Amino acid sequence: MVDNTKKIQNDTQMTRFWQSAKPYLLAVIISFSVSGILIGILGYNVPRAFQALLLKSFSSQRGFIQTLQKFIPLTLATYAFAIPFRIKFFNIGGWGQMLFGGSMVAIVGIALASFNLPAIIMIPILLLVAMAAGAFLSLIAGALKTYYNINPIISTIMLNFVAYYFVNFVATTNPWKASLGHPMTLKIPESGRLPELLPGLHMGILIVLLIIFIIHFMTNKMVLGYEINATGINQHAAKVYGINMERTLMLTFLMGGAMAGLGGGIEVMGVHHRLIEGFALTSGAQYGIFGILTALICKGNPLGVPVSALFISALLVGADAMQRTAQVPVEIVFVTQALVVLLIVVFRSTGNK
Amino acid sequence: MGQLTELISQIITYTAIYALTSIGIVIGGRTGIFNISGEGIMLTAASAGFISAYTTGSWFIGFLVGAIVGGLFGLILIALHETLEINQFILGITLVILGTGISDLLYKIIIGVQLFAPEAPPVPQISIPLLSQIPIIGTLFNQNVIVYFTYLITAAAYYFFYHTRLGLETRAIGEDPQSADVVGINVKKRRYIATIVGGMLMGMAGTYLPMIITGTYTTNIANGRGFMAIGIAIFASWRPERAFLGAFIFATIEILAFQQQLSGSDFPYQFLLMIPFISVLIIMWLFRKKVEFPASLGQAYSRE
User: Fold this and answer.
1) ipTM
2) Is the N or the C terminus of chain B less surrounded, counting Cβ atoms within 10 Å?
């Protein structure tokens, strides 16, 4: 009897697991089959391409470090979308918030160069500047929504481009610009750069791990996390129970923007040590837009963010490897990723019906 | 004088990009479908349209393919939204990323790296007799075919929405789909048509970029214009004729910023380029009580 109940319980657990895993598995299988067929039709070596795409990230130390390099900005960009998405608001501005975070780190870093501050002071200052800059931009969008009911989708898209041109402005203008070569700023002082843990992997990874831990803790253990969850599930009910909707909205935008800003700042402090004109499109900041996809994969669930970001980072590294070893254009992987997300969204909503 | 005429001529040439895209957004928006995927549509249509025009040597086929690509994107958006009630904005942003990937992929596969950038076949220029002789304004009537098409679309959309019964009904869907449905308007069908037609216009605007503006396809050729068009649609209170005006203003700013950059003056041209985006925010804020929005914009409608 007892065994039986347990068995039934196990079964329902299994079906429940299957139910929740099904959209993901189906989406991944279908998108990869489609891209596999495409790769084959185009005359590339399919097994070799897939071997590079799927195994590169975890089969070599270099591949794994590359994956972590992408994981750092991507995770933060994903939080930027995921946190406001918890209460059903869209922060499309992760990209701009990253760019602004990176720009402000460069500006403040260069301004503080002459003070010769030790790293222990300089690094926290710059990290805070990055977060404040990202949060500043996202709070504009949050405030426009809260006080004037302006849709954050529109405002964050517009602010993205303001930040985009701001990067180019900083990189090409005195007193920041370097005197020679490609438009970029002077380097930030040595004490403001994130030290390397391993060759090619800077300290940003520890910061990101800390952030993941804090967000997990907040989601599960803190009142704020509870309030955000409650608001996301039912705004009206949350209001009835005295949760201040405006405050929650502003807080989620603040946190999302701070995460994105941090991501941009860490790119400058850890990778380039300066702001480069192509920062928006070539550095880790380009994942500002990808973060939206990554967040949609895990439905904006904060606990799922690192998993989904690791998955996408591994694919991005695999895509590069695939282009090198099998000459398959990387864009196939971008298309595959968008397909994965589209299909996950589709299967999820068909599953709900 | 010649310089001013040249300037206006250039602005009009750029106006077509913004006007076609934003009117495309307006048409869908009037039925309640907010298609924010313009950037992705423009990129894919730029690539696919350019490739077809280049390989066939026909500008017309280029724009036709561009329109078809845009229509397909519209179809995907509306079909997934209507049948599965997936959020329009999620679909829109996913399509932007999909389009960004597809555009470069297509170009790499079919054209690849070339020693000399392949050139688009010329698009016919037409000068209208008499009208094009008028000083300064005459330049409005000495343009490429697509600019005239844009005039036509603007006028047609205006006439349709404000002077026909069908247009009035279509606007009603955007305001209150339920009532429209009760009165016997086929909400679903109209939404499909509007989103597909809107997508086709955006696609043509995308093809316009390599065919007219740059002469060849380059990565990220839309450069945010698809997003700016969203701002124009809002600025225009979702009216096609105002969208044309907004397009003209945005095009003027883009041309002026470009000239500023060339002139080598100290004023940072980047701030000029920020103006359209900041002005969208300011306009939304200033006229927040006056900016009209189709009331059901962005919301799903199902009969149950």
Assistant:
1) 0.86
2) C
